[in-house]
Amino acid sequence: MEKTMKAVTVYGPRDMRIEDVPMRPLKRDEVLVRVAWTGICATDLAIYTGESSFVKSGEIRYPCRVGHEWSGIVEEVGESVTKFKKGDRVITDNGVSCGECDNCKCGDRFGCTEIMSVGTINCWDGCYAEYMYMPECHTYPLADSVSLEEAALAEPLSIALGAVKKYEIRPDTTVAVIGTGSIALGAAALASVKGAKQVIVIGRKDFKLEAALKCGATHVVNSTKENAEERLREITAGKGADFVIESSGGPKTVEEAMRIASKRGTVALLAFYERTLDAFPIDTLVSKELTVKGVMGEFGLVPEAAEYLAKGLPVEGMITHRMELAEVPAFFARSAETSGERIKALVRIRP
Ligand SMILES: [Zn+2]
Ligand SMILES: [Zn+2]
Asked: Where do the Enoyl reductase (ER) domain residues begin and end (predicted)?
């Protein structure tokens, strides 16, 4: 009898199904991993609704086995696998290289020209599933001190880490983070453990700002109640933030990021805006001599992000929802209703 597993596929906008799908044979360099926890990402939701710019551009195509934030336990290893055995707890990269292009052959697997992103562009089957197939070279052991649940946050944390690495944080650095999603709070936590003097998180919901304080923010500003620019000036004694991470994705917040940055400050933009900006504050950028960096997230930072988790990075406060795999389609269907109360929702698959 053929082996099957439960997996979630998005067939088109708002058409998500849990199905029994056949399990293929394991390749010799692959690890078969029983998925423990999967994180629900805004990208997954945008693929589900069809609003993702990558769906519109045709770079993400239906049917799509979504999901790229996860942790698991090794079930079986291919014949050439040496680093893992059944029962090992693991995390993985969010992309899978081809192993055959020139870059791969030179050992630069993150420069792979044919890279398949897990659950998104050029889709490698994603992790709303009972099992994942991953090449050994993209799989990493998980430290005992990190729970499988928190390990599902390693991928979004790796995106936050990609942003935080855009600036050399020193003991006198003030970092401002606009946004209160899991990547924003991850960036605040990382800036804090990297030793920033002040970490200021700007958001619109008090309970998310409370979570930011638990993640290591020194100050929080609710921009629906206070003038963020004035508050920033107050907190930083008039100087502004040396490093601003804009993660909320609103056109207004790009402008805000420029305004709250200090002279010669750096602004990192790590959201998708899905539109052109009419009011880009170009003169603010010029007169303050700002550096603006786009952050797409890098392949390869997941294990480094997991090291921060192993050292006790405070992320527990960002997990707001937990559910079973069977509940996923209904949760996606009403995701707009829960967005105000959600930071990171996790799916318990087979921990
Ligand atoms: Zn994600
Ligand atoms: Zn390649």
From this structure: 12-347
